Amino acid sequence: MKSSAKTGYVKRTQKDYSISFKLQVVQEIESGALGRTQACHKYGIQAKSTVREWLRKYGNFDWENQSRITVAKTPEQKILELEAKVKLLEKQKARAEHLAQRADKKVIIFDMLVDMAEKEYDIQIRKNYKPELSNASKKPKKRR
């Protein structure tokens, strides 16, 4: 950044922006939270072309060939999108089920190891909790 001591003006260059900052701005614009102009005002970016360049380099959309008119999706396109979404959700569900089974197996193995250690070393590792409350947590009874 170059600054003039007399006027207090700070000239910013594109090199001043970190890659993480650029990616954050691009993500906000692509998610619809901000428009290009709003991003310029919010973050003090002087030129809209700077943001457009970031969108071209780091964005997921084709901003150069984007038209203002949104075309309605055909029923076939909607079906294909929904089928892809169903496949993704099924894959996520299968992964979650796999992780749950794995966690259950780990618990069983851990219990077996604790049982073996208790028998071999003749020590009590697990705490035996009684169903009734301890004396410290009971409310004192009123005497009549």
From TrEMBL:
<feature type="coiled-coil region">
    <location>
        <begin position="79"/>
        <end position="106"/>
    </location>
</feature>
<dbReference type="InterPro" id="IPR009057">
    <property type="entry name" value="Homeodomain-like_sf"/>
</dbReference>
<dbReference type="InterPro" id="IPR036388">
    <property type="entry name" value="WH-like_DNA-bd_sf"/>
</dbReference>
<feature type="domain" description="Insertion element IS150 protein InsJ-like helix-turn-helix">
    <location>
        <begin position="21"/>
        <end position="60"/>
    </location>
</feature>
<keyword id="KW-0175">Coiled coil</keyword>
<dbReference type="InterPro" id="IPR055247">
    <property type="entry name" value="InsJ-like_HTH"/>
</dbReference>
<protein>
    <submittedName>
        <fullName>Helix-turn-helix domain-containing protein</fullName>
    </submittedName>
</protein>
<dbReference type="Pfam" id="PF13518">
    <property type="entry name" value="HTH_28"/>
</dbReference>
